[in-house]
Structures are given as C-alpha cells and as structure tokens.
Write a structure and sequence with these properties.
Layout lengths: L18 E9 L2 E8 L5 E6 L7 E2 L7
Antiparallel strand pairs: 1-2, 2-3, 3-4
Length: about 60
C-alpha cells in the first residue's frame, strides 16, 4: 500500500515545511506544481485547481 498525502509518514517532519515552487505546468485538471522545502529539501507534488484557494498535495512528501 502506498502512502497518500493525508497518511502519516514513518518520518515526521521536525519543522513546518516552507514550500517553494521549482516548476509548474498547466493540465486539464489544473496547474501541477513541483515544490521543495527550502529548509530540508523535501519534495512534493501539488495541484492548483483554482486561483482563489491554496494548492492541494497530490503526493506524499519525499526526502532525497
């Protein structure tokens, strides 16, 4: 079973991530954002379906 964005990882973050967008592209479902925590380097994929609400995580955070 693969973890979903809402499940807890075996590694809990020691801080609240500060997500920075590394790249983005538009799709028919919304804008896909490839984000990285500026502090620890953890990466995640988000999707922004609307401009008036924050993006939603579509992957679990992954550390390099």
């Amino acid at each position: 079973m693969h973890p979903t964005p809402t499940e807890n990882s075996t590694r809990s973050p020691t801080h609240e991530h500060a997500w920075l967008t590394e790249s983005a592209h538009r799709t028919s479902d919304g804008t896909v954002l490839y984000v990285r925590c500026d502090d620890c380097g953890t990466r995640r994929i988000d999707i922004a379906t609307r401009t008036d609400v924050p993006p939603t995580a579509v992957s679990a955070p992954v550390r390099d």
